[in-house]
Amino acid sequence: MAGAIPVDTSTEQPSARPMRADARRNHDRLIGEARRSFAEHGTDASLEDIARRAGVGIGTLYRHFPNRDALMNAVFQDALCSLLDRSRELAAAEAPCRALVDWLGAIVTHAGEYRGLAHSLMSASRDETSALVQCHLPLREAGAGLLRRAQESGSVRDDVSIDDLLQLTNAIALAAEQSPDDPELAKRLLRLTLRGLK
After folding, report:
1. DSSP codes of every residue in 112-123
2. What pTM does this model have?
3. Which residues bind DNA (predicted)?
4. How far is it, in rounded angstroms, from Cα 85 to Cα 4?
5. 100, 99, 97: which is closest to 169 by C-alpha?
6. Which of 18, 104, 109, 195 has its CA 20 to 30 A from that of 119?
7. 99-104 — which CB contacts under 8 Å span 24+ positions?
8. What is the per-residue pLDDT for 4?
């Protein structure tokens, strides 16, 4: 991902008009409560509970976020920006293959913060109508740049695709989520990935 990558954060309303102050407060409270609920209960946390904890009705939640994926997209924008920033930092690394694997590790770490996120991201990669595509596409572009550089250096095979790597990365995060008693599992699987890339 060389250069600036646009991130679409327009999840709340299709119109270009700015939100009223009370609507903005509701929007921000919903994102804050969703972030807490997703971290505590996973990405399948009750939307009704999120709305209640934010002090609004479920209709208000749906006015801002028409579905769960739209709410998840809004919650994960900060992490997405961080992952995109990290890809830009790694774009000039001396060891392109190591940079790619480090970045994939950052994705695994992020996905591990919210139970169910890896599964949702895997599903979104095949569903162009999902609001989570707004997370997936910039990550795909970022990873493609890192992968291309690693391939050009001769350290990664030419037949490796970014789509396969992102699916593999989400699968590693999902496996780690299912094995909380083995905190080193994701690192071991990423090391195996590195061997398979060469």
Report:
1. TTSTTHHHHHHH
2. 0.76
3. 46-65
4. 9
5. 100
6. 195
7. 99/146, 99/149, 99/150, 100/143, 100/146, 100/147, 100/149, 100/150, 100/156, 100/165, 100/197, 101/190, 101/193, 101/194, 101/197, 103/142, 103/143, 103/146, 104/143, 104/165, 104/169, 104/190, 104/193
8. 36
Distance of CA 9 to the CA centre of its chain: 13
For residue 125, the model assigns a pLDDT of 67
Q: Are 125 and 51 in contact (CB under 8 A)?
A: no
Per the CB < 8 A criterion, the answer to whether 29 and 65 are in contact is no
List Cα–Cα distances, 10 to 70, 95, 110, 148, in angstroms: 10, 36, 22, 30
- Rounded CA-CA distance 146/88 in Å is 9
**Structure confidence at residue 144 (pLDDT):** 97
Quickly tell me which residue has 């905190």 as its tokens: 183
What is the predicted pLDDT for the residue at 177? 86
Q: Which two tokens stand for residue 18?
A: 């700015």
Residues of the chain with pLDDT under 50: 1-15
pLDDT at site 16: 53
The reported pLDDT for the residue numbered 127 is 74
